Amino acid sequence: MSPVKLSVVIPCYNEEACLDELCSRVTKASTEVVGDSYEIVLVNDGSRDGSWAMMQALAAKDDKLVAINLSRNHGHQLALTAGLDLCSGERILIIDADLQDPPELLPAMMAEMDRLQADVVYAVRRARAGETAFKRSSAKLFYRSLSKLADIEIPVDTGDFRLMSRRALDALLSLPEQARFIRGMVAWIGFRQVPIVYDRAERHAGRTNYPLSKMVRLALDAVTGFSTAPLRFASHIGMWLVAASILLIIYIAVGWLSGSAIQGWTSLMLVVVVLGAVQMFVLGMIGEYLGRLYIESKRRPLYIVSEIAGRSAGDGRLGH
Ligand code: UDP
Ligand code: MG
Q: Which InterPro entries did the record assign (predicted)?
């Protein structure tokens, strides 16, 4: 079986209200660019609603559609990895299930890839409709601090919505890490990567599956995965504290020698509290790296598939 020209990979968690509209819009956009040589790979990331039943029904009706059911909720980045591992297209589109990323951008992305001979066309968010001021400002701050910290250039205001060539995807899939920050990993592989600007729409239905806790985790994965600056920062704090403590020791010694060393509960408390806080902070930071090292060292599989529904469930790379 020859591989299809395009795979559209979509991680889904509690997206039953979006699936119908999603599939029809993705189908329309894909047909427009590659005729019938495409596949849509839906990954059910342990949804608690009727998403999986709906995916099965959709896959039964449409032979372009393949649905993968993960054994539980593995998280957005791992669900996406599962879909990417199992898709077979020559080009791969990654898109969210909630239609915040418009499938209608696909023809423009394809054209851009051809025109510039690029391996990756990543979509940069110009406006973000329907998202809270907190989400928008925290995202903005996050992308900017990350690009300061990271050792490689990670494009700002860019999610996972992107079109990739097969060789770029194969390079991405050769990175084995557990803590996956895919938009950073794609930047890391290199090749020619070009932006395309779009306006991010509101969610079609349902609500965000990225509460603050998941956002913080993704941010920590991003920073620890792409920068050791926090560790350097820790040793810099340490050096400054050593310098400060030498001055303090001299001051204390002078006070003791001149016999005037009594008062000073306030300053003592200040030193104890500040030092304690700094130490805990630095330890926590080291712990973030250490914890990830521990998780990586277990070398567990990234995800577990429980079943696959749809035409390709035995063809090509699917089903292995
Ligand atoms: N998602 C997932 N697993 C999760 C959380 C989210 O597969 O544990 C999917 C979700 O269905 C959507 C994409 O990841 O397709 C982005 O999630 P969401 O739209 O909730 O995030 P936001 O756009 O609000 O940042
Ligand atoms: Mg969304």
A: Glyco_trans_2-like (IPR001173), Glycosyltransferase_2 (IPR050256), Nucleotide-diphossugar_trans (IPR029044)
